Amino acid sequence: MSPVITSASTLLPVNTTLGAVLFVLLAAAAGVAAVAGLGHARAIVLAGVRAAVQLAAVALVIRWALESLPLLFVFLLVMFAVAVRTAGRRITSDRSWRWVAVPIAMGVAPVVLALVTCGLVPLRGIALIPVSGILIGGALTATVLAGRRALEELETRHGEVEAAMSIGLLDRQARLEIARTAAAGALIPALDQTRTVGLVTLPGAFVGMLLGGASPLMAGAVQLFVLVALLEVEAVAVALVLELVARGRVTRPPRHA
């Protein structure tokens, strides 16, 4: 029997070398953006620094959440609230951004509840936090892409919406007809990731399991579970945000000439 690989022997060392490498990579990213005139050099630096601070804080909080069920639920609620606000503000600047809570919640909550109920994911922070975080992140991304594309399509093709209504379609039906294809494009990243997994990319769950000492078979099983769950979560999120846009619940302030 082969020896068990411990996580201590495989994880990245947290030392000055890691800090130096991160600094060089962040500086290189900002430098390329500046030289190429992409206009996001400062944003890249700030994003990297913010990520470091947030992850350090989260690491401390998770230690407490792992030991207390009430704190675990509070932590998950905070994750959800941040995702809703982030997604909502990416889609629109008016108060309708609050409706974004619906697609994210309805995409993630049933899946997590089903996984806990059937025993596949134990009601423990060590399992629930990463699984919920991955699914909430997927729902956030899909909701933002679908919401923005749907609203932009309706704004660009406003005349076609009016024409569809003139031949008898209801406002909701006309909006769905025009925005559906654009919103559905939000599923393409998840589909591409699932199609190419193992051939082009090795996603985070797979690599993380390997670094933690799991066997390749176990890592592959976990990654497959994550990818399929993400497809379901993102499909629900896209469908619901499209419906909210079509019904006029999620809107965008009119642009002034």
Automatic annotation (TrEMBL):
InterPro entries: UPF0014_fam (IPR005226). Keywords: Membrane, Transmembrane, Transmembrane helix. The lineage of its organism: Bacteria, Bacillati, Actinomycetota, Actinomycetes, Kitasatosporales. It is a multi-pass membrane protein. Coiled coil: none annotated. It comes from the Bacteria. Its main location: membrane. It is found in: Membrane. Belongs to the UPF0014 family. This is ABC transporter permease. GO terms for cellular component: plasma membrane. The chain crosses the membrane at residues 12-36, 43-62, 68-87, 99-122, 128-147, 197-218, 224-246.
